[in-house]
Amino acid sequence: MTAPHDRRDHVLRAITDDGAFRVIVVQATRTVQEAIRAQKVDGEAARLFADLLTGAVLVRETMAPDLRVQAILQAKDLKSRMVADTHPDGMTRGLWLPREGADGAAFALGSDARLQVARTLHNGAPHQGVVEVPEQRGISGALMNYMQSSEQVVSVIAVGTYMAAGEVVAAGGYIVQLLPEVGEGPLMVMTERLDDFQRIDKLLEAGSAEPRALLAELLYGMPYTEVGEADVHFGCNCSRERILSSLATLPRHEVHELYERGEVLEIACDYCKKEYRIGAEQLRGLLGSN
Questions:
Q1: Of 4, 38, 113, 151, which has the fewest CB atoms closer than 10 Å, so is most exposed?
Q2: Residue 96 dihedral angles phi and psi, to the nearest 5°
Q3: Which phi and psi angles does 89 have, rounded to 5°?
């Protein structure tokens, strides 16, 4: 069991005993803090980036807990993008790709902003959906549109980030899904509760959004059972071997030119910014394998 004030990032899943609702709650504070630090995101973009990362985790845990999910947010300028990438082991990372010369304050939603969610189905086939991002409802609204239009699952989603002095203090969210067994009575109760429920960012600011506490508040008065728990963390699956594999896809003459220079290549991972040094001997090994 998780301690009442557990600060680790994790997800809790529960279902009401009457089979009417499934609820997933997530705490993602440290994950988004480290992703923002790695990508050097600032301004309003940092809040959106945090919400996107949290939302991607919720979608994966809801629709594909043992598969990878990517969410790509395109700003209304059609040139700035951010990417959330979350994996079955809870490893989550992101990319911040602003248009040239733009900073985080310039990243804005609007009529042309789009959210694309991509995941792999259990049969290996790709599945993706693209929805508009409503300016007033932000990432939460876009995710609800995606779940309804692309997954045909009625869901109420709220993701939020509490920031102070430009830094993320807390990040988290929840998704409430209506299951086929839902009756009119429970539906009315839940609808009224969610209408009156505080905004998630206010709960985060008050320190009241720890997953188990948030779950208990969402389902207050409804018997429910916790059915799963999983950790979430910032991380990256980059490696020297992956870098070399990428270099091996270059035309042979380009690899040969790099080798002839005799220079040490310094290559940084786009996601985590870890630097790798590739020497001439390793390049010669690529030439030998071609």
A1: 4
A2: -115, 115
A3: -85, 5
Torsion angles phi and psi, residue 32, rounded to 5: -75, -35
State the sign of the Cα–Cα–Cα–Cα dihedral 46, 52, 53, 58: positive
Phi-psi region of 152 (alpha: psi -120 to 50; beta: other; left: phi over 0): left
Question: Tokens for 176?
Answer: 């409430």
pLDDT tens digits, residue range 7-19?
799 999 999 998 8
Longest C-alpha distance within the chain, in Å?
74
Give percent of the chain above pLDDT 90.
49
Residue of 120, 143, 119 lying closest to 132 (CA atoms): 143
Q: By the 8 A CB rule, do 279 and 264 touch?
A: yes
Buried b / exposed e across 131-162, counting CB within 10 Å, b at 16+? bebbeeebbbbbbbbbbeebbebebbbbbbbb
Q: Which amino acid would we find at residue 182?
A: V
CA dist., res. 280 & res. 152, Å (int): 53
Q: Which domains does the chain carry?
A: 10-234 (3.55.30.10), 240-289 (3.90.1280.10)
Q: pLDDT digit string (tens) for 46-86?
A: 999 999 999 999 999 998 899 999 999 998 887 889 999 99
- The string of DSSP codes covering 147-172 is HHHHS---EEEEEEEEEETTEEEEEE
Stated as kind and residue range, the H or E segment containing 15 is strand 10-16
Planar angle of CA 84, 164, 135, nearest 5 degrees:
50
Q: Tell me the helix, strand and coil percentages in the chain, rounded to 5.
A: 35, 30, 35
Q: Measured between alpha carbons, how far is 119 from 230 in angstroms, rounded to an integer? A: 19
